[in-house]
Each structure stands twice: as C-alpha cells, then as structure tokens.
Amino acid sequence: MSYTTLVSVQELAAHSRDAGWIVCDCRHDLTDYEAGRKAYAESHIPGARFLHLDEDLSGPKTGLNGRHPLPHPITLTLRLGALGIDNATQVVAYDASGGVYAARLWWMLRWVGHERVAVLDGGWRAWLDASHPVTADVPEPRPTTFNPNLKPDRGTDVRYLTAHLKELLVVDARSPDRFRGENETLDPVAGHIPGAVNRFYKLNLGGDGRFRDTAELKRDFAQLIGSRSPARVVHQCGSGVTACHNVLAMEVAGLSGSILYPGSWSEWCADPARPVATGAA
C-alpha cells in the first residue's frame, strides 16, 4: 500500500524498519534560518533526512521570482537520489508547523512525478505525544538514482496566471490580515492578487494540529470553489509554501487536481506594473 496524502504516526511507526520508507525532516522557521537544522541536530525521527527550505526546497532568487522559487527539477532529483530516495520509495515528510513545510516537499515530489509521498499528520508534535523514539544520530544514506517525470501542469507561472486571471479562482493561503493588506512584514508590498479569495491554511487543521475530517474539508472547499473544477483553482500564498497546504487539503478532501502558483505574492508584487488589491473582498 502506498500513501499519497497523509500518514498517521501509528502507520509510520509500523514501518520504522521498512527500507522502502524514508522520512524527511522539513522543520523550518521563516524568521530563523538555522532553526530547523538546529532542531534536527538535537533530535529527530530515527532515520530522518533533513531538508532545508531555502537550500533544498527552493532555487536561486533573482529579486523578481519570489522568496522561495522552485529549484530546477534536475537539482531536486539529484538531491533526492543523494538522500537514498528512488522512484519506488515511500516518502514521509514532517515538520513542527502544522505541515506547511512538509507539504512543500510533498508538492515538489509530485511535481517531479513521485506519487508515493505523504505528510505526517500532526507532525513532530504528534510523534512526540505518542512517545515514539527520537534520536540525534544522523543516517548515512545509500545514494541512488531518482528519474524525474515532470508534471508541469501541477503548477503555473506568473505569465499564465496574468493572462487567465479572470478564468481562474485564485486562493490565497495567507492570514486574513495579510490578505487584506494589513500587518505585512515579509514582503515589500501589502495586499493581494485582484480577484483572489482568502483561505487561511490553518483552517485545514484541528486543535490537535492534525488535518480536519475529510468531510469537513470537502464541505469547506466545495463552498469556496463552487461549481469550478479543481483544475481551475490556483493556490498561492506569500512565497509558494503555505499554499501547498491548501493543495494537500483539497487532495485529502477528494478534490484533486488544483494548481500551485509557486511565485505567489512575493513574485507578483515584485513588478510594480501588476495590479494590487486590498481589503477583504
């Protein structure tokens, strides 16, 4: 059996000795570059490989392509191979932030054609709460080859989005105040893409940090997108990270096929010629 959206701590623990399963630690803090690496060095799920948001899950920045542009797919697949991940590996990603950074890896693996990837539901906290073992030992991966099968239709770029903005539903995963253009601290311009609707990614989670019930998520997103096909729904956020959480939530809800705009607001607002909206609507 393969897992393609979420996996529970119990399921992961049951496969702890399975050589076909590889765990990836994606912990990160946008305000502290080294926080995830330090947390990993202190303790992590046994066998987990560490992936840094800026170093492994992002590519070079130009000042115009957003805060976390995608790496070249070959760069990503070489890194996966170095970590021991091949096309048959079941990958499980986790973080300590409700799954936002783990969801970025989840989306990126699907982008290069790897479906056997899931996010650990509840993440690091759920693993600790279940009293499963942790370690500071760093594994020594056996390098392998990952052959990409790129799925470019799982993402879109700013040119396509601009040309088809009126035909698509843009869903912004940022907090409501940032969506309205208030309290912006990460990007130089406040506001949102005109016509976008707001779906704060934290609404996907229950009080325990796990994803909400499938039926609840389906109801919420069905109300949000109306009669549109999920393939006409484009997710964005500040830099293409938390938006992946909404893509994942729609997949969990059975509403498959929505799209990520990786450049997101940080790319959109880098060009002063692009329109900016503020307020709740």
Properties at a glance:
9 strands; alpha/beta; four-stranded parallel sheet; single chain; five-stranded parallel sheet; 281 residues; 2 domains; 11% strand; 29% helix; Oxidized Rhodanese, domain 1
Protein described:
- By secondary structure, the protein is of the alpha/beta class.
- The protein has two domains: about 5-150, Oxidized Rhodanese, domain 1 (3-Layer(aba) Sandwich), CATH 3.40.250; about 155-270, Oxidized Rhodanese, domain 1.
- Helices cover about 30% and strands about 10% of the residues.
- The protein has ten helices and nine strands.
- The chain has helices at about 10-15, 35-40, 75-80, 100-110, 125-130, 160-165, 175-180, 215-225, 245-250, 265-270; strands at about 5, 20-25, 50, 90-95, 115-120, 170, 195-200, 235, 260.
- The chain has a five-stranded parallel sheet with strand order 1-5-4-2-3.
- Helix 4 (about 100-110) links the parallel strand 4 and strand 5.
- Helix 4 (about 100-110) packs across helix 9.
- The mean pLDDT is about 95.
List the helices and strands and how they pair.
Layout: E1 6-7, H1 9-14, E2 21-25, H2 35-42, E3 49-50, H3 73-82, E4 90-94, H4 100-111, E5 117-120, H5 123-129, H6 158-163, E6 169-172, H7 176-180, E7 197-198, H8 214-225, E8 233-236, H9 243-252, E9 259-260, H10 264-268
Parallel strand pairs: 1-5, 2-3, 2-4, 4-5, 6-7, 6-8, 8-9
In short:
With 281 residues, the protein is an alpha/beta fold. It has helices at 9-14, 35-42, 73-82, 100-111, 123-129, 158-163, 176-180, 214-225, 243-252, 264-268, and strands at 6-7, 21-25, 49-50, 90-94, 117-120, 169-172, 197-198, 233-236, 259-260.
